[in-house]
Structure formats: structure tokens, C-alpha cells
Specification:
By secondary structure, the chain is an alpha+beta fold. It has 4 helices and 10 strands, in the order H-H-E-E-E-E-E-H-E-E-E-E-H-E.
Amino acid sequence: MSFEYYERYDSDRTIVIRRRRKLKFFNAILIIILSIILLSACGKTNFKAESKESIEVVKETLNEKAKKTNNKSGDINFYLPFGYEIEEESPNNILLKNGSKQYILFNNPQESKVSDVVYKSTVAQNKEIEINEQFKDNNQFGYLIIKKLEEDMNEMTIGIGGTKITTLIKTSSLKNEAAVMTQIVKSVKNQK
């Protein structure tokens, strides 16, 4: 074999090695980009899907038996799940807290469970409501109102008659929070 053959062989080998390195680098970049796209797509919660599930959860919870009351504020008794506490009280409003989340429980003792007065005033005060569902039967008038605030934040209000509870919540938590908030509202009993 001549010297030229070894030289050509060596140069071809170097080219192949360089191409393999470029291909590995390109594959690594491609995998990283696809991973980022996939993770960002999985991280975003679909508002439509989550709100539909919330509607179903509220409907189901409204049809369940009310939880036994375990808290009292003024003239109302109500159920608070574990981890929730009363932060502040006023005649018609109770500020509840669960970790960093806050809830406003509003109660108008003049309105019955079939009244739609609080619902109508809530709808009149809010513009651009995304979800406005009503649940009517002979014993109660329930409703769910969701207003989108930002990309992933929402204001959710759930009420029965003259009682409602409102909070700011991430889209991914709508369904779970809807169940708990409905349990609280459903349990409210006026002593008068």
C-alpha cells in the first residue's frame, strides 16, 4: 500500500468522525427541543376540560347530603374541611384560609336556598364570565361562575341561594376546589 492510500483513508475516517459528532450534536439539540415542547404542552391545563369537570363535580356535590357542620360564625353554622380556618369575620362575610389560598364565604340570611338574588347580583357585577351554570331543583338554586383573569388564574364562585363562596384559583385546581367549595356552601345553616 502506498502512502497516498493511507492518507486518503485517514482523511475519510476524519470526515466520518466529524459527521458523526455533528449528527450526535444535532440529535441532542432535537431531543432537548422536543422535550421542552412536550413538557410545556403537558404543563398547561386545558380550561375547557377542567371547567367541564368542575361543572359535573358541582352538580354531583349539590345532589349529595350536606356535610355535618363543625364551625360557627355569628348566626351561621357550616362545615370546614381539615386544613381550613377562619381568618376574619364580619356580619355577612367570613374570610377562610387554607394554606396560602383565601376564600370569601358570603351569607345573606334573608335569602332562602331557592333564592336567585345573590346569583343575579354576582352576575351583574362580573363582566366576561366564562362559565355561568345554574342548577335548579325544588330544594335549592345552585350556581357556578368562573371568570378567567389571566393565563392560568380564575375567579370561581359557587353558591346556593343566599350563600356563596369565592376564590382565586389556578385552572389545574378548578375541579378539586369546586368539590370542597360546594361542600362548604351546601352545609351553611342560618340559626335565625
